[in-house]
Amino acid sequence: MNITIQTKSGVPIYEQIGKAIKADILEGKLRKDEPLPSIRSLAADLRISVITTKRAYEDLEKEGMIYSVPGKGFFVDNPDREYLAEKRNMSVEEDLTKVIEEAKNAGLTKEQFINMLEIIWEE
To answer: Considering the entire predicted model, what is its pTM?
Structure first.
């Protein structure tokens, strides 16, 4: 598993870990019942606190992305992909709504905004 932590991003480290693992599950890089690194092992690899890693795993477990087996560790669950895709789409819509409001406040026209979006999309 390849997780990159951005310490200056402003996003909590446990959220970054959760997003990375969730992305690997949704992309099929991690399959159902596949074991995840132990909390201590992942914390050591990332050079972060065990508490931070534990929080990431607990949040993923609450979302139904992973499950724990006492004495064995954490494993990939079989998440409801349609629900997760809809949740991800809603998050993008929320972010896009904020960006559109900023564009309006900056005085951009709809055409200017769409043109900017198309240019950035192609990069």
So the answer is: 0.69
